[in-house]
Amino acid sequence: MDLPVMPPVKPMLAKSVAKIPPGMQYEAKWDGFRAIVFRDGAEVELGSRTTKSLTRYFPELVEALKERVPERCVLDGEIVIAREWRLDFDALTERIHPAASRVRTLAERTPASFVAFDLLALADESLLDVELTDRRALLTRALARATPPVHVAPATTDVEVARQWFEQYEGAGLDGVIAKPLTSRYLPDERAMFKIKHERTADVVVAGYRLHKSGPIVGSLLLGLYDDRGALQHVGVSAAFAMKVRAQLIEELEPLRMDDTTGHPWAAWAEEAAHESARLPGAPSRWSGKKDLSWVPLRPERVCEVAYDHMENGARFRHTARFRRWRPDRTPESCTYAQLEEPVRYDLDEILGG
């Protein structure tokens, strides 16, 4: 491979802001695996956000890119999986598997798509120092004839359209809106863009915690919601605390600490089969590897309010929830899925143009 922009390249990143800023280019924020695509003739490499190779996990996408993108180019975009009418991040994570046979099976069962939203190089020219508006024009021309599973991300400079996308696209599993300065160069690994994500709040049961890697202080709180059968389901964690607060939490939660998980709603967490019928902490994962997933059980009597952006398949927080406050006025039994706001369904085909 011999391209004007060579791997590894870390993608340009975005910083969070509360509102959609005016006077920029706007795109949807895709919920998938960020990937830099390097193509030089028959060679294709998919680099992750951390520069690790994703190529072996998406053989069907490699072949599709050979047929649908320019002979020599470097693209920034997102690998996604669409099922029915929305993105499915869980199906995407299943694609990262060590067994080649399983990779081939999943490539047929849940094929991936690539949504391109920037162009870093074309033919023999690096475009890193080219302004965004010109890179966008080159991207749309270069992929003008691309067909699924390769797409060009919709973009607009109309802030009112961006606000409409922000409200509608969540119903198709998208994450929010990205705003990019029109004259910006491509700056790898720098937060030179802006992201605007949905934030909602929910009251959740604190049913345990994990210790921090630095010592006997709280690393993360384990959060739960009751389903319509009255079972407490593990829905995620809250982990962003100052070190002083982590130590205070240990003392504050000590009266609720259980000697072991006997009698706890998540008592079967260490049994792999139990994860098939319930959401429990410590589920086996290719991502966690040898990471210690043990946790300290608490009597599920305390309620706190957390902020979250959206739910994955309506079952768990897609990202780490942000602790807001304790809710002594709420009972644990009142913390159910029913309180969660459901986004209005929006067909992903409407975004990708069929």
From TrEMBL:
GO biological process, one term: DNA repair
Keyword Membrane belongs to the record: no
Tree of life domain: Bacteria
Sorted UniProt keywords: Ligase
Enzyme Commission number: 6.5.1.1
Start and end residues of each ATP-dependent DNA ligase family profile domain: 105-227
One example GO MF annotation: ATP binding
Entry's family note: Belongs to the ATP-dependent DNA ligase family.
Name this polypeptide is given: DNA ligase (ATP)
